[in-house]
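Dear colleagues,

As part of the handover before I leave the project, I'm documenting each prediction I ran so the next person doesn't have to rerun anything. This entry is a single chain, and its sequence is reproduced below.
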Amino acid sequence: MKILFSPSEAKTSGGRDQSFDQNSFIFPELYNKRKEIVDKYNSMIKSENDEKLSKLFGIKNPQKFKQYKKNIYSQPTMKTIERYSGIAFEYLDYQTLTNSQKSYIDQNTMIFSNLFGPILAGDQLLPEYKLKQGEKLNDFVIEKFYKEHFSTAIDNWLSDEPFLDLRAGFYNKFYKTTTKEYTTLKFLKNKKVVSHWAKAYRGLVLRALAQNSIQNMDEFMNMEISGLEISEIIKIKNMRQINFNIL
């Protein structure tokens, strides 16, 4: 079972004193494409004024983004899944999982970084960075670039395995299959779709997948997830949408 997952704006600081390189991320054959984006970002944070950087980082006070104006190639690095610290990752609570459960997530979860594109949860050398979702590098559209250059590689990685798309809708701009069967989830409270708290439930679902070592959709459908119950299943072309009621 493969899982597609969103990043978070919040990140854990620090890490090891080792820069990333061609072998740091999945799809090393596409590293030069990935590096094009990172170099554009690196150049921009060194040369642009505070007004532009405030928009790029999504931080109003220039005093709070000085740490992000450093050369990204000299920033400390850590495992991808440990770098992100937003609400979905809080509810995933990766550090309390067993080694085999962590391995399940490391190998099967692809996270769509706003800067680095599609990377595996287990990729080891992700630096700290700040880039607001949907922001351009001047006029350059990041998500369009990654969709153009990485979609075939993602298709090959997914192969014929079932996959669960736990991303927020924005990340369809990075990758969206039109041929493969896949499943997505919606979370409802009093018949209304929740947005902010959907992040928490995505984290809980990913945790449950790892704890139960789910390998296919039959196993997923039979898995109990605390606080959730299936209310409806909708089939639209190659997508199956499972609606969960929040209890």
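Residues 2-246 form one domain. The radius of gyration is 18 Å.

All the best with the project,
I.
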